């Protein structure tokens, strides 16, 4: 019986490996990006060269958002199955930045290899598990070839311009949930009143894309101080932990009650993001 099961495993393992495809995306110009497949964020941090394996479906809806908000996000369909056999494939895509608009070039698909080892310069994640191996120095892989390019939509922006805050005054000492004393940070003394914060929050909520929400929320910080509760409300408008982190870190020095900032940890979905925020607070934004 053990011998029979061993034979079955030997037969099934290659089949299981072929049942999952992979996608590698890299930026030829070194633009860092976040990749979303079917709405799911594939890495906590942005990268230049990203490989996602464990793709069991044939088709995915991809969205690529760049650290540089001036670069137009890309939305495109991704297929990791051979059209003839239906077997999963290794797909590689190159991105070229043409003045803020991205052209995608898909290289000829390769069959999935069970013994494939990605180069050290590729950050690898498993689909649906964004907190995986640490990345190495970012350079594109050496694949060559031609394929079909796709360029997608742009986006609009928004902002709020309200009264400037008074950031002069005493420094504040924050404490975490364990009562540990943190380094001092500047205290922002004048918070937005409710009548001003409500339209500001609505301007963020009305943005269609998450990266636009982030730009609008950061615009509020240019001329205003916020309470921790107000920062939490804005963080909850974002769909992705990466944008929650970016805004929460930007808002830290512009809060009126930094001692309460540890409350923000609960707005994050992934444990890695919660830890990132906790470490940031413990180091008083450094």
The helix/strand series, from N terminus to C terminus, equals: HEEEEEEEEEEEEHHHHH
Strand content: 15-25%
Uncertain residue segments:
2-18, 132-186
C-alpha end-to-end distance: 60 Å
Task: Note down, in words, how this protein is organized.
The protein is α+β, with helices and mostly antiparallel strands and 286 residues long. It has two domains: 135 residues; 112 residues, no CATH class. Helices cover 26% and strands 24% of the residues. The strands form three sheets. Strands 1, 4, 7, 8, 9 and 10 form a six-stranded mixed beta sheet that branches. Helix 2 runs antiparallel to helix 3 and helix 4 runs antiparallel to helix 5. It is elongated, with a radius of gyration of 22 Å. It starts with a helix and ends with a helix.
């Amino acid at each position: 019986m053990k011998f029979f099961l061993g034979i079955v495993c030997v037969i099934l393992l290659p089949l299981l490996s072929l049942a999952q495809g992979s996608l590698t995306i890299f930026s030829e110009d070194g633009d860092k990006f976040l990749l979303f497949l079917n709405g799911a964020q594939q890495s906590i941090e942005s990268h230049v060269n990203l490989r996602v394996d464990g793709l069991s479906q044939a088709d995915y809806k991809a969205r690529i958002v760049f650290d540089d908000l001036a670069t137009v996000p890309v939305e495109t369909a991704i297929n990791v199955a051979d059209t003839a056999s239906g077997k999963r494939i290794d797909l590689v895509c190159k991105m070229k930045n043409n003045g803020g608009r991205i052209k995608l070039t898909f290289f000829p698909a390769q069959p999935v290899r069970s013994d494939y080892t990605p180069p050290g310069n590729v950050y690898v994640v498993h689909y649906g598990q964004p907190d995986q191996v640490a990345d190495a120095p970012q350079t594109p892989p050496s694949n060559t070839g031609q394929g079909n390019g796709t360029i997608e939509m742009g986006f609009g922006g928004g902002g709020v311009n309200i009264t400037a805050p008074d950031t002069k005054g005493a420094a504040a000492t924050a404490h975490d949930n364990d009562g540990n004393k943190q380094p001092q940070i500047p205290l922002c003394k004048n918070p937005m009143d409710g009548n001003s914060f409500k339209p500001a929050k609505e301007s963020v909520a009305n943005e269609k894309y998450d990266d636009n929400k982030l730009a609008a929320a950061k615009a509020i910080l240019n001329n205003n101080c916020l309470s921790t509760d107000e920062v939490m409300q804005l963080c909850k408008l974002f769909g992705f932990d990466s944008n929650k982190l970016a805004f929460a870190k930007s808002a830290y020095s512009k809060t009126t009650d930094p001692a309460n900032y540890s409350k923000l940890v609960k707005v994050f979905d992934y444990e890695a993001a919660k830890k990132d925020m906790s470490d940031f607070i413990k180091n008083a934004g450094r």
